[in-house]
Structures are given as C-alpha cells and as structure tokens.
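User: Structure tokens for both sequences below?

Assistant:
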Amino acid sequence: MKNFKAMTRRLVTATGGFWTNRRGASMALVGVMLVPLVGVVGLATDAARGYMIKARLGDALDAAGLAAG
C-alpha cells in the first residue's frame, strides 16, 4: 500500500507540469483553425470560378446577339 501511494504521488508530480504548460497551445490553435481556413479558401475559389464562367457566358450571349442582328 505504501508503494502504491508513492507511485501515485510520483505520477501526479510528473504530470503536474503537463496541465500548466502552455508552450504548445499556439500550435494546437493553428491546427484547429487550419480546417475552416482551407474551407473558406476553397469556397472563395469556387465562387470566383463561377463568376468567371458567368461573365464568359454573358460575353458569348452578347456576341451571339450582335452576330444575329
């Protein structure tokens, strides 16, 4: 029983610094925020390509209307 108490005391003191250490917090935040950032960049790229296709379609319709007239 005495050995068990000593082992648990050593375990608590060894992991005590883990809960108070903040050195890796910024890396965890970067990892978490990377997922929405990639999603937003993908959405912006799709929106830009959609706008470009719409503009080209409008130009083609204008040219077809002028050619028919």
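Moving on to the next sequence.
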Amino acid sequence: AVIWRALGVEDATPSPSGQALAEELAGNPEQLARYTLAQACEEARYYYEAYRAYREVYDDIGGQPYLLSQMMGMLALADRVDDPAGEGQALAEAHPDTPEAWIGLSRIHEQAQDNEARRQALRRATEAEPDSAAAWRALAQYANEISDYTLALECYRELKRLDPDSPIVNNNLAYFLLASGEDPNEALPLAQAAHAELQDNPHVIHTVGLAHLRLGELDEAQRNLDFALQMRPGDPTLLLDFGQLLVELGRTEEGRRHAQWAVQFADRFGLDFPRRDEALALAETG
C-alpha cells in the first residue's frame, strides 16, 4: 500500500504512518525503487538484503516510524549482522521519542531470547509515547508470554484508557483482573461488555464464566464454562477452571479428573500452561 500510494494510486490505503512514508517516497524515485527492492527481498525471505535496502532508504530520508519498524524487523531476522542488538540499540537511541524504534529493538532481543532486555526496550517504548497503543500491546504480549499477570494488568488498564470500547481489551482486562485475584465485581461487567460484541468467542465466554465462578454464581459459571469447554475441549486452562467449578458444586472427583486432564493435555501437546502447579494441587487434593 505504501508503494502504490507513493506512485499516486488514490485508493491505496496505508496506515497513517505508512501514508507519511509514502509522501516522503513519492518525491524520491531512487529511494522508492530501493524501498520496493527491500519489500521484494523481505517477501523472498532475504532478510539481510532487505535490511540493507531499508537501511539505505533510512540513511537518505531519515527515521520515519513506519520505515524504522520495517528495518528493525529485518535486523532481528538478518543472519549476517555481527551485533544486531548493538546496531538496533544505536538506532533506537537515535530516535528516543519514537516507540516503533524501541518495539523494533524488543523484537531483536526476542529473537536472541533475552527477556530482560526485551522488557526494558518495551518499557522505553511506553515511556517514549504513553498514548501509543502499539507499545502497550507489545508489552502486554510480552507479559502474557512470561505469565506476569501484574504487568499484563497494568498494560490492559492503559489500553482500556486508550480504547475503552474494544471488546478484546475489555475481555483481557477482565481476565487478568481475575487471574491477579482482583475484584470480580470489576471484572464481570468488562467481560459482559466483551461478550456483547463477541458472543461466540470461547475466550470471552470463558472469562464471563470465570467471573461468575469467582463471585460464587455457580449456575451462570457452569453454563458459560461448559459452553466454552465444548468449543475448546483440550484447553488446559479451561479444563482447570471447569474442574474448580465442579469442586465448588461438590463433584470433587470429577473436578480432580478435569485438573488431571489439564496437565495431561498440556504435556501431550507441548502447550504453555503457567497454572500447572495449581492443576496438580487440585488433582491431588480436590
């Protein structure tokens, strides 16, 4: 879309930052050609060549956020750069107020499996522009991956501030409120608002059921959790929450079996299951 827009195609619709880059490239045929080469290399998975081409465009027209994001993404994947983290750090430091630069640096650290450096880069992204939804989403994804519920809750509170009507944000904020032991009375209306928009989404139905469970409203909890589990029968977290519901209903042996199945499914399919210890404890004691 950036290329077509730079060539004057009016119905091409890049994002606002892509539009800004297209305007820069429109008056610079040489760099537009080089940018097109970079796109072709990226598509062909010649990541080093794509990075070098993007870098040449960057050296000529400067640090457009959209271009920085693309260039840093290729730097994360390039296999012929001696020190990608150092090169990415220098680029980010050259654009300290551009969240896309820090998000790009976080991708380099993610590729290197350096979680602490990744966290620091994403923090810098949110500090560079506190109203950047992209920065908060990237930090939320990181928090979810490492099961840091406190950090995830912080991120989704910020995303709620930025986009109060998003059903995904409402659902995820509700879920992390519940996962962090916060007030289920705050979580339930958020989950219900998400459900009004995404009625057939098993993750949202799960959150609604979990909120009812935490409030002791067992009939509603059973109706929603049972429906969600039918949609995702091998989901370890759903199996565990349904097992906890069964124990609350006095069906302890069934609840223990569901907790056992949660562990077995996670192990069999290599699924990330941060609540494994909780499931094992339920399976053993009911």
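User: Anything stand out in the second?

Assistant: The radius of gyration is 23 Å.
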